[in-house]
Structures are given as structure tokens and as C-alpha cells.
Write a structure and sequence with these properties.
The chain is an alpha+beta fold and about 240 residues long. It has 6 helices and 12 strands. The strands form 3 sheets. Strands 5, 6, 7, 8 and 9 form a 5-stranded antiparallel β-sheet that branches. A 4-stranded mixed β-sheet has the order 1-2-4-3. A 3-stranded antiparallel β-sheet has the order 10-11-12, with no helix packed on it. α3 packs across α5. The N and C termini lie far apart (about 45 Å).
Length: about 240
């Protein structure tokens, strides 16, 4: 039985027919080419911005939900599409990925205040999940627990990604601290003394706010001397150094 691990929000763009006809006339192109032109001009940037600004809330929910190790018969990921008008009410399953549509105009998202954006993302996620949970008769508790925990931490997605590592003399320990924000993911190395007091903090990376980007940088943490620690990427061909 697969473990459900990941959730995705995917806004759908539906071009107006009148706009497409105008593009076809002006560019002497096919319908498909007109769709591509219209999407690039009117949707590409804004959808990319939505995905960037929403992922840190969805990733926070994923991190809390992963602890449940929730097993299903055939689902490993859920993708929630939202559109101005629902075109298909079914829950589709493609190779273990469930897909469902909910009604929402993503343009409204950008009219919201920053705190309201966080709540809206979480509520869109919950709306889609609730429909699947009801139809598949899943246990609702682990989904609700993850939802509540996101609210409890005030939508702040930050964590220590590795166990603190002691230096050769056992006088200090270092840890890697991640802050997945709306527009960036900051990775910081923190050094503490024996008592746990922080004596050095250095931000070593600021990356695009998506796991597919920043996770490859979270490789091995290693002391290379009594007073110097490095974070290596997963390929161990780059490293970032902090001295006490």
C-alpha cells in the first residue's frame, strides 16, 4: 500500500474564445498556436507567481502530514486543480496520483492581504482534500491534524533539517536551519556551545522556495576542523563554510 506524501495546488487558465480568435487573425496562426501565445502573454508569469507564493504553505502541510505515514490503496499524491468553472467532477487516478477540480478564480488570490493569502491557500487545499476524503471514506483525523498544526505555528514554515552535530573537541555543535518563505528559502548554519547557547549564525544560501530546488542543497553537515563546519550539497561537489 502506498504512503500518501505530497499535495499540489494547480491553478488552471482558461482563455476566452474571442481573445483566441483575435490572436489567430492577427498572427495568422492555428488555434493551438493562439492558445500558446495567449498563455505566455496572460498566464505564464502570474501562474508561476502563484505557485511560488503558495508552495511554502502546502509544503508546511505536507511536512506535518508526512509524520502520519498515511497508507492508501492506490494514492501517493493529490493534485488539486482550481478553475473558474468546474469541467469534471470526478476524482481521477493516474498512476497513483489523484486529481480533482474545485472552483476558484486564482486572480482573486492576488487581491488578498498577505495573511489572507496564507489562509486561502490552506483552505483551498482543505476543500479539495475534504471531497476526496468523503468519497474514498478515508480517516479524516490525520488530515485535520495537519491542518490545525499549520494554524498553530501561524503558517511559519521553518525547521532544523538535521540533528545537531558536535565538533571534534565536543565543545560546540552545529545545526542547519531552514526557513521556507513566500518568495525565498533561506538556509542558515547555527553554531552553539555546550549549553546550547547560540554563538554564531550565518545564512549560507537563499534559494527558490520549492523543495525540488532547495532539497538538493541539504546534503552532509561536516566539521572539517575544530572550529569550521561545512554544509555540502547532496552531490558533495559544493560546500558552504562557517567558522566559529
Amino acid at each position: 500500500m502506498p504512503i500518501l506524501r505530497d499535495f499540489r495546488l494547480h491553478p488552471e487558465h482558461t482563455p476566452e474564445e474571442a481573445v483566441l480568435q483575435k490572436i489567430m487573425t492577427e498572427n495568422k496562426c492555428s488555434y493551438i498556436e493562439a492558445c500558446q501565445i495567449e498563455y505566455k502573454e496572460n498566464a505564464w508569469d502570474i501562474l508561476a507567481l502563484f505557485n511560488k507564493q503558495s508552495r511554502y504553505i502546502v509544503a508546511l502541510y505536507c511536512r506535518f502530514f508526512e509524520k502520519e505515514k498515511y497508507k492508501t490503496e492506490d494514492c501517493k499524491m493529490i493534485v488539486i486543480h482550481f478553475l473558474k468553472q468546474i469541467t469534471d467532477t470526478r476524482i481521477l487516478n493516474c498512476d497513483g496520483i489523484y486529481e480533482i477540480q474545485i472552483q476558484y478564480d486564482y486572480n482573486d488570490f492576488f487581491k488578498l492581504a498577505e495573511d489572507d493569502k496564507k489562509r486561502k491557500i490552506l483552505d483551498l487545499l482543505k476543500e479539495g482534500l475534504d471531497k476526496i476524503i468523503e468519497e474514498k471514506q478515508w480517516d479524516k483525523k490525520p488530515f485535520d491534524e495537519a491542518y490545525k498544526k499549520v494554524i498553530e505555528v501561524d503558517y511559519v514554515n521553518e525547521w532544523y533539517c538535521k540533528k545537531a552535530l558536535r565538533n571534534p573537541t565536543k565543545e560546540y555543535k552545529a545545526a542547519v536551519f531552514c526557513e521556507h518563505k513566500k518568495d525565498v528559502c533561506d538556509i542558515t548554519i547555527i553554531i552553539m556551545n555546550k549549553k546550547g547557547d547560540e554563538i554564531r549564525r550565518k545564512k549560507v544560501l537563499s534559494l527558490l522556495p520549492h523543495e525540488l530546488v532547495y532539497e538538493s542543497y541539504l546534503g552532509k553537515l561536516k566539521w572539517i576542523s575544530d572550529d569550521t563546519v561545512v554544509l555540502m550539497n547532496r552531490f558533495e561537489n559544493e560546500q558552504w563554510e562557517v567558522k566559529i
